[in-house]
Specification:
five-stranded antiparallel sheet, 1 helix
Length: about 170
């Protein structure tokens, strides 16, 4: 066993960076590594990317939010149009106002706000919401012209195993 320093997100974010350090974030219930500049989420055999985007506007309430790429910026995905439903990943953590971690595979912690204020239900498939950008829902869209896009399967009340299934236009 290897004991790790542990604290809430706010406390860990305020610490002096020391490259190579592992810490446990009690707010996110996840292990992070320090790259000397910021804390980065360790994923379970997933693919994560550190994204720098000036004033991205994402907050802790957006953790797990599905994103699409416009060609120049990352934005919250929505299933009401094909171009906004092309998910490239989900927000794994917020580093600062200009940087976040994007998970493309593996699992991601989902803030209740991303599921309309509710906890996830283990074993349930979650779809990209057609009514609220950056949200997921257990109800598959049925409106003609919308996109049915599975985002993942819940493995607990707060964790989603990401899937990369193709979206289908309803019609």
């Amino acid at each position: 066993r290897l004991p790790l320093p542990k604290a809430a997100t706010a406390t860990l974010s305020g610490l002096t960076r020391k490259q190579g350090t592992l810490v446990y974030d009690t707010s996110q219930q996840a292990v992070y590594y320090d790259d000397g500049t910021a804390l980065n989420a360790l994923g379970g055999a997933g693919t994560s990317f550190r994204i720098t985007q000036a004033s991205h506007g994402f907050t802790a309430s957006n953790l797990g939010a599905p994103l699409y790429y416009t060609g120049s910026t990352y934005a919250k995905a929505k299933a009401d149009a094909a171009n906004t439903a092309e998910i490239v990943g989900s927000i794994a953590s917020i580093v600062d106002t200009n940087t976040f971690i994007l998970n493309q595979s593996g699992s991601v912690t989902v803030a209740t706000a991303v599921n309309g204020g509710s906890a996830l239900t283990a074993g349930t498939v979650y779809f990209l919401s057609a009514s609220s950008a950056g949200q997921i829902t257990s109800t598959e869209p049925t409106t003609v012209g919308y996109i049915s896009k599975p985002v993942g399967v819940a493995s607990s009340t707060s964790t989603l195993i990401l899937t990369s299934y193709r979206g289908v236009t309803i019609g």
